[in-house]
Structure formats: structure tokens, C-alpha cells
Amino acid sequence: MATLNVLVLVCLLYVAFLFAVAFGADHAARRGRGTWLRSPIIYTLSLSIYCTAWTFYGAVGFAARSGLEYVTIYLGPTLVMVGWWWTLRKMVRVGRSQRITSIADLISSRYGKSNILAVFVTLLAVIGTTPYIALQLQSVTLSFATFAANDPTAAELPDQQSTALWVAFGLALFTILFGTRNLDANERHHGVVMAIALEAVVKLFALLAVGVFVVWGLAGGVSETLARIDASPIADWNMAGSRWIGLTMLSAAAFMCLPRMFQVMVVENENEDHLRTAAWAFPGYLMLMSLFVIPIAALGLQTLPEGANPDLFVLTLPLQEGRDGLAILSFIGGFSSATSMVIVAAIALSTMVSNHVVMPVWLWATGGTAVVSGDVRNVALLARRMSIAGIVLLGYLYFRLSGGGTALAAIGLVSFAGVAQFLPALMGGLFWRAANRTGALAGLGVGFLVWLYCLFLPSFGPSAILPQDVFDNGLMGLGWLRPQALFGTQGMDPLVHAVMWSMLLNTAVFVFVSLVTFPQPVERLQGAQFVNVFEHSSGAATGWSGHLARSEDLMIMSQRIIGARQAQALFSGAAQRQGLAGYLPEPTPDFLQELERELSGSVGAATAHAMISQIVGGATVSVEDLMAVADETAQIMEYSSKLEAKTQEQERTARQLRAANEKLTQLSVQKDAFLSQISHELRTPMTSIRAFSEILRDTGELRPAEQAKYASIIHDEAIRLTRLLDDLLDLSVLENGQVVLNVQMGRLGDLLDRAVSAAGGDDRAALQILRDRDDEDVMLTTDLDRLVQVFINVISNARKYCDAAQPVLTISLKREEGSLMIDFIDNGSGIPTNQHSVIFEKFSRIGEIKADGAGLGLAICREIMARIGGEITYLPGQSGAAFRVILPDSIASEAHAAPA
Question: Secondary structure of the chain: what % helix, strand, coil (to 5)?
Fold first, then answer.
């Protein structure tokens, strides 16, 4: 007999193997080598998350108790994949175009990005999934108990409650480690998906192995197996037509609405063409999973003692025959079914809780200031990790409160009926443009209450939560409010009764309220985008109004949510498309819509919408958007499309002209200022030289000390004049391309040391400089003296102009897209946004004049970097003034040893 110690060891080794697979897949995806992770086969296998411990263990128990009724659980998803493939394709297209992160996000985004609706869907999903998580814990604990009962070395049976607690702890830990590594929920969880695909193969192989053993090892062949099935109670057809249809429709609805199915089917989808493969491959997988259910159930009923739990026939049949290895394989199959469901469900639900409950509450509590000053990424990640732990804990609590004695199939059907309440709002949102938020809220509310009252609360047992008197006489003594005989419908199956009334009332209220109320403009716009998603996949659903002065706030917020690198790439790309230089695009409606969708991948559509609204001031509806909603004729729409394209081109040209005009105006002002300043700069030393020269010439009675003093003044003023002329000459040579580069090899750290020393030394009282010398071990091949000149200028500017009480300059390095980036960021107040475009222009002196200079330093730096093949830019959205020096990899290379 297999001992519990061996079973625990095998279980731990299997979990460690899953860790390795998940880690390897994540590592391969990050390095760009995981193209095989994006195959349709992996996608199809990930859909096997539908086959939980219910289908592995419970399907056999279902067949033993109810005959062929178990087929309905497989028939519903098969009908959806084959007959409703186009609906799934539409869901996937909407998910990709709107950057949907969960089913709550999809429903809330469709109905005007309503966070109230998202919260309601999230709570319903958590409550509806809780029994399902409890089912998985129960299946694993029953499996351990079965092995313990067949282990003669076990002194006593393990406590099921403690076993379930340890299993819950392990599942929560695995999910946190591999399900919350990235904030962007729209990014693929390659490690988790690969582990689920592997588990799909394991559980299918295990169930087929047990089936082959039962048919050819126990029964003696196919004909003998069929004879035993005919002789068993399973052969009696006692199936009620209403229950058969009800269960088929329920399983089909749950397949589309379960949070875990939405996660793998929509969020994790890499390519909607993968649905073509899944449309035939997944029904084939389900067929193989159900192939041996009836033989195992029939043989179990005949060979095992009366009163044996049918849910565990997959385990007890091999154990009874002394096939310990097969029994352990069967256990691993059931364990895979349970763990994969809990992991994906916890990821999906934690994303919903974080995006639609925690983040809105946090934003409200901070008054919106945290959008630009708080650490949004850490808050969101912490919320998801705590949500995972809380969701698994809820499943464990349900397991304890319900006693863990209910048949597995019964628990699963309770969850199916709960999440099926999303179906009217989901289908209405995808196909009916008149559907609105009020109708969706009303329908979901009524359906949820009926399900809660008629099915969920009674699942705890009589008198557990609802008193027995309510079951007998109805709520408040009203007989037509009995939980299992609502409105006087007696004699119905409790499940069919609850599903019928909850779905009927849900749909009726949803349709009626949507018809008598009018949607908000944003709802109508979103409705057009969802219903006509194949025509408007790239269109904007909402118009925004913004101002350039707020672009930097938007960038600061974006960096705190999606990370500095991704935010800077998004903003700089948008600026280039608008024909603008730098990192700050004009906040046009198109750009704000793009930004909202990017942020929604991390914090959800409703929260992203609220964050941008707090900065920009709210959404507006443009005339073009309203025309799109109005269902104009094809000719008008075509004309409107052409006109919009021309308008956008004109707007782009106008923006470029406006930016050029503003720049020319600023340059004109600076030119006038420069002419005045340069004349002053030239006149002052020349006047001094002339005056003191005349004194020396005309005064014959000067003492030697006075002569030396006046000569020294003349000398200093001459040097000052020479330096100014040298700068002008240097800039002229650089601009005309007449400079000859002196290419040498040197270490970056040494060059920075020279620059710091030349700029005034590391005088911490004047300026503290923070550096990571290990990162500076980079060899450069370029004109080192010219590059040091750039560093000196940037460091000197920080020393002169940083207005912090204790000035600090941070020098940091990073590599990205074939370039080495050296950032110089101080802790001052920075440079005003309206001055960013002229920072590197000649004669530019930004802000208050605090030090001598003609404003040529940064212009010289720009020309030097252009000549050596690099670039210097101003980096907005930082804590103070920030300059980035960019060197291509042809100049910079990693140093393995210092040069001789």
C-alpha cells in the first residue's frame, strides 16, 4: 500500500516541477525566446482549466448517481465552442481592443466604465467562485483521506480541516509568486499558462490511464465493460428533460462567464485565430476526459463496497486492486485539476478586487494626489497579493462551514448558477446597443438575490443560515417565498428552480429597465464600440480635452503605474507622431484614449478613466463621436471618415506650425535678450581694459602695487573676453561640421571623475553627487575630451541652478534598445514645461539668471553629441531638472577589465 509519506513526497516533487516549468516559461518569454508559448496548442490546453476536480473526480460520482446527466457538463462548452465561436471571437476582439483585464472590467467598460457596476460584478464573482474553490480543497482532502484509509501504517486519519488549510496555503503562495509578478494584467502570465497546459496533459493522461485499467484490467475488455454497464443502475434512463436542458444551458453560460475561463480565453489570448484551433481541439479534449467516466462509475458501483463515495472511484478502484502507482498517478491528476483552477481563479478575482475595489478606494482616500505622488504600482501589487490570500481563505472558510460533505457536483453547480448571472449583461453589452448601466445593475441585482436566496444559502444545509421555518413556510411566513418553491412552483428540481427564476428575472429586469431608461453618452459610445467592434476596433470611444501644461502630470502618473521605461516610450512615440520633439505630446483626445487603454491593462478601465479625469478634468463627447453613434448611412460614414482623416492631418500640421511659431517667438525674445546681453558681455571687459589701460598710460605716479593691480584686472577681463569668443567660435565650428574628432578609448567612470573634478569637485556642501561606480565600468570609444565637456556642462548647471535646500545630483545608467543612457537628475524644481523646447537653443538662459554665462553651453553640448553619434535630451516628469545623454552601443561596450 502506498503510504501517506510517499504521497506527500510525490505531491511536493510535482509542485516543485510546476515551479520550475513556470519559472522557465517566464524566463523564456522575457528573453523573447518563448514563441512556442504563444502556440494555439498551449492556448487550447489552457482552456482545460474548465476541467477541475469536479470533472476529474465528480464526473464519475455524477454518473454513478445520475447516469448520463454528467454529459451536460461537457455538452454546454462543446456547443459554445462549435456553435458560438463567433461570439467568443467577438469577446476576444473586445478584450484586446479595449485592454480588458477581467469579466468585471468588460461589463463595466461596456456600460460607461461604471466602477459601481464593476464592484458589484466583482463581489458577485467572488461569492460565486467561493464554493468552487471549496470544492477543489475538498477533493484534495478527500484524496488524502482515501489514501490514509488504505494505508495500514497510518496510526490515525489526518484531520481534513488541517489538510485543507495546508493545501490552501500552498496554492495561495504559488499563485502570488507567479500570478502577480507583473502589474499589467493584460500582459500574459506565460509561466502560469504553461503550468496549466502541463497540468492539462497530466490530468488527461491520468484519467485515461485509470480508464484503460478499468476497461481492460478489471472488466476484461470492451464487450465485458458494456455488459457491466447494461447491468448497472446507470443503464436506467431516468433523466428529466427540463434538468437535462437546464444543466446544458447552465454549463454553457458558466463556460463563458466563469472568471477563470474569461482569464484564459480572453485575457491570456495572444491571437484570436487560436480560437479556430480551440473550436475543434477543446471539444476533442472534453470528449477524451469523459470517455471512461461511465465505465469507471459502473465498475465502481459493482466492485466496491456499498456506501463507497462515488466521487473517489477514480482513486479507490486502483487502490483496491493494489495498483499503488496508478493510484498515485490518479491523485496527481486530481491534484492538477484542483490546483490549476484555484490558481487561475485567484489571479482573475484578485485583479478584479484590486482594480475595482481597492484602487478606487485608495484614490478616494488620497484625494487623487497619489496619482502623481504615490507609488501606485506597489499599492496595486500588494492589493492583488492580499486579494489572492483572502480569496483562497474564503474558499477554505466555505469548506469548513459547509462541512465538506456535499457531493462535488452539487457544489460545482452552485457556482455555475452564480456566475451565470453575468450572461444577460454580457450578451446584451455585446449585441444590444440600447442596453445600459441601470438595466445591467438592476438585472444583476435581482438575479444575484434570487440565486443567493434559492441556491447559495440553502447549500449550507437546513438551519445552517436560513432557518428551517423559511424552507417550510417561506420568508416572513409567505408561502410563495419559499426558497425551493418560489412563486408557488412546487415539485421542481432545486437547481433547475433556482436557475430558471434567477435567469428569467435577471433577463426580464435587464431588458425592461434598459428600455425605459436612457443611456448616458459615454454608454452609447461604448455600446457602438462593443457592438460594432470589428468595424471600430481601433477607434476611440471617448473624447477628452486637455492642456499641454498637464502632459507632465500625465507622464508622472503613468511612470508610477506602468513604469518609467514603458511610460517614456509611450509618450515619446506619441510626441513623434504629432511631429513634436521630446517626451511630452500634446494631450489630444486620441492620445488620451491611447493612454487610458494602456493604463487600463494595469488598473482596469474604470480606474484608469478616473485617474485621467482627475488630471485632465473629465471627458467630453465630440461631434464626430456622436455622429458615429447615430447610425448614419454608409455614404455619410465614408465621407465623415475621409473628412476626419483630413482634419487630423490639418490638426497635426497646425500643431507643428504652432509649436514652430512658439519656438520662433521664444527664440526671437532670446535673440533680443542675447544681443543686449552679449553687447553687455563684450562691452564690460573692453571698457574695463580701456579704462585701466588709460590709467596706466596717463598716470605717472602709480606705485608698483597699483600698477600690478590694474594689470591683473586687464588680464582677467581679457581672459573673460577670450572665453566668450572661444565659445562662439567653438559652436560655429561644431555647427558647420568642421570639427575633427580625436577618437580614443576610455572608461566611463574615469570620464565622470574628470568632469566632477573640473566642475568644482565633490563639494557636498554645494552639491552632493550620487553615483553607482559598478555600473560605470563601461568602455567608450569616441572623442573623450568632447564627451567630458558635455558632462562638465551638465554637472556645472546642476551646481549653479539647483534650487534645493540641499542640492543632490544623481547620475545613473541604463541600457535600452541598443543604447547606453546616462541620466543626470537633480532634486530641484526643474525647468518649466513651456521652456523645454528651447533648452538646447543658442543663447538660451532658462529661468532666473543665477550665474554668469551667455547661454551657449547646452547648445554646444547638443552639437557635440550630434557629432559623436549620440544625443542629449531633457527628460520631463522627474523630481527635478533631468538630462539624458544617449550613447549608441557602437560607442559604449561592457568593460571586463580596466585598460592598461
Answer: 70, 5, 25
Question: How many percent of the chain have pLDDT more than 90?
Answer: 9
What is the C-alpha separation between 537 and 533, in angstroms, rounded? 5
Q: Looking at residue 637, what is its pLDDT?
A: 47
Answer yes or no: are the C-beta atoms of 232 and 366 closer than 8 Å. no
| Average pLDDT rounded to a whole number, residues 678-706 | 69
Residues 204 and 211: beta-carbon distance below 8 Å? no
Q: What is the pLDDT of residue 844?
A: 64
Phi, psi for 882 (deg, rounded to 5): -140, 125
Q: Over range 273-288, report the average pLDDT.
A: 91
Backbone angles phi and psi of 820, in degrees to 5? -105, 125
- Identify which has the larger pLDDT, 229 or 505: 505
The partner residues of 871 in beta bridges, in order of sequence, read 886
Asked if residues 570 and 819 have their Cβ atoms less than 8 Å apart, the reply is no
HEC secondary structure over 539-593 = CCCCEECCCHHHHHHHHHHHHHHHCHHHHHHHHHHHHHHCCCCCCCCCCCHHHHH
The mean pLDDT of the chain is 78
- CA 504 remoteness from chain centre: 35
List the Cα angle 479/124/96 in 5-degree steps: 145
When comparing pLDDT for 618 and 321, which is higher? 321
Strand order in the sheet with 892-894: 743-747, 778-783, 892-894
Q: What are the two backbone dihedrals, phi and then psi, of residue 487, each rounded to the nearest 5 degrees? A: 55, 30
CA distances from 598 to 548, 602, 837 (A): 20, 8, 26
Q: pLDDT category, 728, cuts 50, 70, 90?
A: low
Type of residue at 380: A
Question: Cβ(14)–Cβ(168) under 8 Å?
Answer: no
Count how many residues are written for the chain.
900
The more confident residue out of 53 and 239 is 53
Helix (H, G, I), strand (E, B) or coil at 770: strand
The three grid cell numbers given for residue 386, joined into one nine-digit string: 492580499
Positive or negative, the CA dihedral 270, 272, 274, 279 is positive
The strand pairing partners of 771, in sequence order, are 811
Residues whose CB is less than 8 angstroms from the CB of residue 790 and which lie 6 or more positions away in sequence, other chains included: 861, 864, 865, 872, 885
What are the start-end ranges of the H helices in 759-843? 784-801
Phi, psi of 523 (to 5 degrees): -65, -40
Q: What is the band of 373 on the pLDDT scale with cuts at 50, 70, 90?
A: very low
Report the distance separating Cα 555 and Cα 419, nearest Å.
38
Task: State which of 225-239, 720-734, 761-775, 809-823 shows the largest mean pLDDT.
Answer: 809-823
Contact 296, 59 (CB under 8 A): no
Going by C-alpha positions, the residue among 462, 410, 494 that lies closest to residue 138 is 410
pLDDT tens for residues 605-638?
Answer: 556 666 676 666 554 444 444 444 444 334 444 5
Phi/psi of residue 307, nearest 5 degrees: 95, -5
Cell digits for 205? 493522461
Cβ burial of 829 (10 Å; 0-12, 13-18, 19+) is middle
Residues 6+ apart with CB under 8 A from 832: 846, 847
End-to-end CA distance of the chain: 70
pLDDT digits (tens, 9 = 90+) for 195-232: 888 889 999 999 999 999 999 988 888 888 888 888 88
* Dihedral in degrees, nearest 10, Cα atoms 189, 190, 196, 201: 160
- The pLDDT score that the predictor gives to residue 443 is 94
Q: How many CB atoms lie within 10 A of CB 297?
A: 27
Rounded-to-integer distance, Cα 365 and Cα 17, Å: 43
Give the model's pLDDT for residue 625.
43
C-alpha cell at 561: 503605474
